[in-house]
Structure formats: structure tokens, C-alpha cells
Amino acid sequence: MPSALITGATAGIGAAFARRLAADGFSLVLVARDEERLTAAAESLRLRYGVESEVLAADLATDEGLERVEARLRQGIDLLVNNAGFGHPGSFLDVSVPDELRMLKVHCEAVLRLTMAALPGMRKRNRGAVINVASVAAFFNRGTYSASKAWVVNYSESTAAELVGTRVRVMALCPGFVRTEFHERASIDASAIPGFLWLSADDVVDESMRDLALGKRVSVPDLRYKVIVGVGRLVPRGLAARVSQRLGRR
Ligand SMILES: NC(=O)c1ccc[n+]([C@@H]2O[C@H](COP(=O)([O-])OP(=O)(O)OC[C@H]3O[C@@H](n4cnc5c(N)ncnc54)[C@H](OP(=O)(O)O)[C@@H]3O)[C@@H](O)[C@H]2O)c1
User: Fold this and answer.
1) Strands (E), the chain
2) 39-54 pLDDT, tens per residue?
3) What atom of ligand 1 comes closest to residue 9's alpha carbon?
4) Is ligand 1 within 6 A of the CB of residue 221?
5) Rounded Cα distance, 2 and 67, in Å
6) Which residue, 31, 161, 197, 213, has most beta carbons within 10 Å?
7) pLDDT tens-digit profile of 110-141?
8) How many angstroms separate the alpha carbon of residue 111 from the centre of ligand 1?
9) How far is the CA of 236 from the centre of ligand 1 (A)?
10) CA–CA distance, 49 with 42 (Å, rounded to integer)
11) pLDDT per residue over 146-199, tens digit each?
């Protein structure tokens, strides 16, 4: 039975990955901070799909939490989904430096360290995959959040390029707006985001799994966002930055 470790597996996109991979017959390692919620998620997956899940409570913003997840990955895993993440409200210049650093730790350091813990075993077995959840924001300029996600895309593409000729895949997943707990947790007012821009977490995960099977290095689910990213690359960066800063202020 193949195994998968998912960070941020209790809510939103991570929970959708857990459902999809359980349905596909993976045994799971579920990572997040809230142990009670992790245990409830594992139980619900057991009842619905008959899979056993390990629960690994860890705060990826701490070295101690990262070390425990690294140790689990070194025991061997077939698929790593680096998904845990969060946002801050308002202008990033108003966010405290410790909070910004916490974001870089979860979005960048955790992705780097967990990927590097998983890859040696995958390379040895010559199979396996890493999905790093970035964002469409990676292609726009919107402060530390988009900068951290741009790092995730660049890092994933670079790592995938290094692995050409092997059967180990690395892919960045770049969703647009997805209905999850993300915006509420970050106290971001999502009411101004037009309804047609919202995606479902299950659809995002299904398209990302198709893209992984196709060997893509970057997955941008849904035609709407493929167009937005394509147009974003054509307009001058200064204009794209002004538009995204305006959206980001809400
Ligand atoms: N929703 C969107 O519109 C959207 C769009 C593009 C990209 N994304 C990206 O998608 C990923 C998942 O977001 P989501 O929308 O599914 O968010 P979500 O519904 O808020 O879920 C976040 C998950 O991450 C876990 N988590 C947060 N901080 C953590 C930490 N320090 N250590 C360990 N686990 C942590 C949370 O559990 P605990 O609180 O128990 O730790 C939860 O399971 C993020 O990387 C986000 O940046 C989201």
C-alpha cells in the first residue's frame, strides 16, 4: 500500500488531499497542530474509506515540530504533500516581523526541510512524488505571502529539473481562491471576491493529481486561473502589482 504524508491535513485543501488519497488506497500520515482534530479526521477517514492514518501533531513554525516530521519522512514515504499555510490580513507592511518570519518558516523552510527529508528515500527507491502547495499569488506581487509562494514554485521547478531521468516527481500546485478556512482564519474579508473566482478544494486536488500523473512541474487548476496567470505574465509588473495590492488591502 503506498503511503502519503500531508501537512495541514485537517482543513481545506489538505483535508481534500486526505480524502482523495484515502479513496485511492494510500495509507496516510496526517500533520497539523490540533491533535484532537487530527484524531477526528483519522477516524472519519477510517470509517469512510477503511484506511488507517497516523496522526502526527506538529507545529511547522517550530524547529521541534519540523524535526519530528523530518524523522517520520526519513522512515520512507511515497507521496509528500507540503500544504500547511496561512495568510495575514491587510497590508504586509503592517504585519510584525516575527509574524512574517513565521510565515516564511511554514511556507519556505518547512517545504525545503520536509522535501529534503523525503527525497533521499524516494531517489533510492527511484519512485515517489512531492506536491508543494503554492498559489496563483506566486505570479503576482503581493508582499511576503506571494513572495513565499513564488519561492515554492521556483524551488519545486528547480528540484524537478534536478530529478530528470528518475521516477521521482516534484510539482508546485498553484490554486486561485479556494473555499476553505484560510480567509476566515486570517481575518481576510473575502466578500469582495466575485463568486465565479471560487474553486472547490476537491476539484483543485483532482486536477492536481491529474497534472502530477502527466508529469507537470507546475499545476494551475481550472481554465479561469490559467487565463489569469497567462494575462498576469503579459501585463507590466508594476501594473500587476498595483492591482494585486488593491485586492490585498481588503
Ligand atoms: N484557500 C485559498 O484560497 C488558497 C489559495 C491558494 C493557495 N492556498 C494555500 O493552500 C494551502 C492550504 O490552505 P487552505 O486554504 O486549505 O487553509 P486552511 O483551510 O486554513 O487549512 C490550513 C491547514 O494548515 C494547518 N496549519 C496551519 N498552520 C500550521 C502550522 N504552523 N503547522 C502545522 N500545520 C499548520 C491547519 O491546521 P492547524 O491549525 O491544526 O495547525 C490546517 O490543517 C496553504 O499553503 C495556502 O497558502 C490557499
Assistant:
1) 3-7, 27-32, 53-57, 79-82, 128-133, 168-173, 218-219
2) 999 999 999 999 999 9
3) 43
4) no
5) 23
6) 31
7) 999 999 999 999 999 999 999 999 999 999 98
8) 13
9) 30
10) 10
11) 999 999 999 999 999 999 999 999 999 999 999 999 999 999 988 989 999 999
Bridge partners for 5 per DSSP: 29, 80
β-strands 27-32, 218-219 pairing: unpaired
Domain total of the chain: 1
Span 174-185, pLDDT tens digits: 999 999 999 999
Q: How far is the CA of 25 from the centre of ligand 1 (A)?
A: 24
Q: Are strands 3-7 and 53-57 parallel, antiparallel or unpaired?
A: unpaired
**Three-state SS for 250?**
coil
Residue 208 beta carbon below 6 angstroms from any ligand 1 atom: no
Ramachandran quadrant class, 128 (left: phi over 0; alpha: psi -120 to 50; beta: rest): left
Which residues are tagged catalytic?
145
Q: Ligand 1, closest atom to CA 182?
A: 20
Of the candidates 66, 86, 67, 100, the one whose C-alpha atom is nearest the C-alpha of residue 8 is 86
Strand, helix or coil for residue 19: helix
CA of 124 to the centre of ligand 1 (A): 30
Q: Residue 206 is part of a domain; what is its CATH number?
A: 3.40.50.720
Ligand 1 pocket check for 202: Cβ under 6 Å? no
CA 97 vs. chain centroid, Å, equals 23
Nearest to 178 by CA among 14, 57, 9: 14
Which domain does 230 fall in, by range?
3-248
